[in-house]
Design brief:
The structure is a single chain. This protein is α/β, with parallel strands linked by helices. The protein has a single domain, classed as Rossmann fold (3-Layer(aba) Sandwich). It contains six helices and nine strands. A hairpin with a 5-residue loop joins strand 1 and strand 2. Helix 1 packs parallel to helix 2, helix 3 runs parallel beside helix 4 and helix 4 packs parallel to helix 5. It starts with a strand and ends in a 6-residue tail after the last strand.
Length: 254
């Protein structure tokens, strides 16, 4: 489907994006619940097959059921993004089943918001960094070659405003997101010559189970669907440009 374009009078004609991604394949990590599930549902509504990646099959199947009930297409693909062998197996499956990948949304992440760094056990540090940062490296390493071959694709990394601001008692999480931002900026430069657009989305506090929300009004917080809407905007951009970074905040401070 063609991108939004001006008519002969210079006025913008908004194209129908209802099936803008029909025939494409989109992978969403952490798709079992929260932000990942919302992104998967939103993208599936635009036409592609949503490949749902995560560690817990039952959560992925719940997301898949919602997509199928809405007449979308979904496939469940259990995978631990922090395990290179697991990611490699997933990439092999996608290659055999579809022979292509158009969209990769690296959303899987774990938090940690209650312990000063000097008291943080090394295994907790490793768990956060391995999922939030190393896992993105593994996914890009495994799946970017399919996009390079096709000379097209979108990679969207879900970061956080914690990757921009200080986060006391959340230093490991903040470090993983600061690292993810730097990784995204660099990979965007590496892949733009292959017509692959790499973007990072940095939301503020989102109303999910991931982080504590003591004293915040959940109705004023960002919702998972807000992040999903942002991802949908990124993958339906006009082809001659790309948005490299989005900082997403609620209209009212919660």
């Amino acid at each position: 489907m063609p991108p939004d374009a001006p008519d002969k009078n210079g006025d913008l004609i908004l194209m129908d994006t209802g099936r803008a991604l029909f025939g494409q394949v989109a992978i969403i990590t952490g798709a079992g619940r929260g932000i990942g599930a919302a992104i998967a549902r939103k993208l599936a509504g635009l036409g592609p097959t949503a490949v749902l990646v995560g560690r817990t099959r039952s959560h992925l199947e719940s997301t898949a059921k919602a997509i199928l009930e809405a007449k979308g297409k979904a496939e469940v693909l259990p995978c631990d993004v922090s395990d290179m062998n697991s990611v490699g197996t997933a990439a092999g499956h996608v290659e055999r089943a579809f022979g292509r990948l158009d969209i990769l949304v690296n959303n899987a992440g774990i938090g940690g918001f209650s312990t000063p760094l000097h008291e943080l056990p090394p295994d907790v540090w490793d768990g956060i960094l391995n999922t939030n940062l190393r896992g993105v490296y593994y996914m890009i390493r495994a799946f970017a070659p399919m996009m390079i071959r096709a000379k097209a694709g979108h990679i969207i990394n879900i970061s956080s405003l914690a990757g921009k601001n200080a986060l006391p008692k959340g230093a490991a999480y903040a470090a993983s997101k600061w690292g993810l931002n730097g990784l995204t900026y660099s990979v965007a430069e590496e892949l733009r010559g292959h017509n692959i657009r790499v973007s990072v989305v940095c939301p503020g506090s989102v109303n999910t189970e991931l982080s504590p929300h003591v004293g915040k009004d959940p109705l004023k917080m960002l919702q998972p669907e807000d992040v999903a809407h942002t991802v949908a905007m990124l993958v339906t951009q006009a082809p001659q440009s790309f948005v490299s970074e989005i900082l997403l905040r609620p209209t009212q401070k919660p």
